[in-house]
Specification:
By secondary structure, this protein is mostly helical. Helix content is about 80%, strand content about 0%. It is built from 8 helices and no strands.
Length: about 160
């Protein structure tokens, strides 16, 4: 009975958050295949821990898993970016949005993994600085400093992109 209830609860969570987690993984990695793998791995680990995390808000836990998986993946790959993923499987309408996302991901790839995660969790996932601090296990002041410095670093790239349009 418990396993069936757990599966129903997790399935609802999965359906609600899988696409958003994949997009976050894509922005963190700039690679659709790695995003697929890492988002799936994060959700699998969440499922395995569902009995512990279901009573609390599980999404921050899954964010933390995903960020840690990306960090581990970057360390293992010595911070090398792989060629961009496949956009030919998407419709023409979504191709522009994907191109924009990949362009943003390329800009974000100039940041360290921690600063990239800080910006994405803070602005893309709309977490407060305190929540980002908990997810990344970093002091609040460091999160605020990382946010400011990351924005300073990508602001010129955003301006160049805007001028190119």
């Amino acid at each position: 009975m418990w396993k069936q209830q757990r599966d129903i609860e997790f399935e609802a969570f999965y359906r609600m958050h899988r696409d958003r987690l994949w997009r976050l993984a894509l922005l963190l990695t700039s690679d659709t295949d790695r995003a697929d793998d890492l988002a799936q791995e994060a959700l699998l680990r969440a499922y395995q821990a569902w009995h512990r995390i279901r009573q609390e808000e599980p999404l921050p836990y899954v964010h933390k898993i995903l960020v840690n998986l990306v960090r581990k993946d970057w360390r293992r790959r010595a911070l090398e970016l792989l060629p961009k993923g496949r956009t030919e499987t998407f419709s023409a309408d979504s191709a522009d949005r994907i191109a924009d996302a990949l362009s943003l991901a390329e800009m974000l790839s100039t940041l360290s993994t921690v600063r990239r995660a800080t910006l994405l969790l803070r602005f893309y996932e709309d977490l407060s600085a305190e929540e980002v601090s908990r997810v990344l296990e970093r002091p609040l002041g460091t999160v605020k400093s990382d946010t400011r410095r990351a924005l300073e670093q990508i602001r010129p790239l955003l301006q160049i992109e805007e001028e190119a349009r």
